[in-house]
Specification:
Elements (H helix, E strand, L loop, with lengths): L1 E8 L2 E5 L8 E5 L7 H13 L3 E4 L15 H13 L3 E6 L6 H5 L4 H6 L3 E4 L4 H10 L3 E3 L3 H6 L5 H10 L5 E4 L8 E11 H5 L15 E8 L3 H13 L6 E10 L11 H9 L6 E2 L13 E3 L2 E7 L2 E6 L2
Parallel strand pairs: 3-4, 3-5, 5-6, 6-7, 9-10, 10-11, 11-12
Antiparallel strand pairs: 1-2, 7-13, 8-15, 9-14, 14-15
Amino acid sequence: MILLANVTLGQRRLTMPSFLQQGDRVAVLSPSSTPEAKMVAAGCEVLRQWGYEPVVAPHALSDDGHGFAGTADERAADLRWALADTTIKAIMCSRGGDGAVQVLMRTPLEELASHPKWIIGFSDVTALHSAMVSAGVMSIHGSMCHAISAQGGTDSVSVMLRQLLQGQLPTYKVAHHELDQQGEAEGILVGGNFSVMCGLAGSDYDFLRDADDLILFIEDTDEEMTKVDRMLHLLEIRGVLQRLKGVIVGHFSKYKHPENGFADMREMLHHYLQHYAIPVCYAFPVGHQRPNYPLIEGCRVRLAVAADGTRLAFVP
């Protein structure tokens, strides 16, 4: 693992887990909904092609009868096994869905901090990312089994994830959007699924609760504009928006629009965020649509939003 003296969240110094070596074992587990067995198998095959040894967790393919991949106790046991097993070097979640929050109460922050290793996933896995960063450990918001196997692990985003796992910190450049708020900022990157992170508000697992050096990225799917409006104002009521150094707006998909008099989600977010003197990037490729760039949660980044586009650089 790598201790970075210049990367802190509140009073906690953040740890960057060790990057992977050829032959390393990668646990595949399901903290949320039940995945399709063939999708997990396909994801495991890509991990093998990348030079790793996938190990499917005992309950990764289970179904408790309510759509979850086993009971909350079983899913938590899988996570704690993967963390404690010293031969496991990283954890890839099979899919998102629902239920990861049930695992948190059964996984103390001290246990997450004691076993720093990469957790990879997005969507409902945002709950685990928030917990990991709250425990002082970085994690990876990125593709899971379905996405890495869709094109055999050779598509550009899968290549980005593979290179990141090998230790190549990325710098991303994306096109300018007409709503972008120009400016530059440096801070700790956190974020993910907006509704999942807001559901952790005020808890010990909430990575937004006590930090004032954050660049926040948000994305969501199947959420109405009115609900996103409420969640954004929840951040304002909590004082989070006022402490942010920058905002990155990712994909918002499968929502009803127009609504509330706004043409779309970006226009609504801009209506509120324009009042903050911080850089804001719209249409960043992260979330439930492709492409979904891998991002390191808890890592220091430099964000530059300019007339010719946005640059996001991860710095050690």
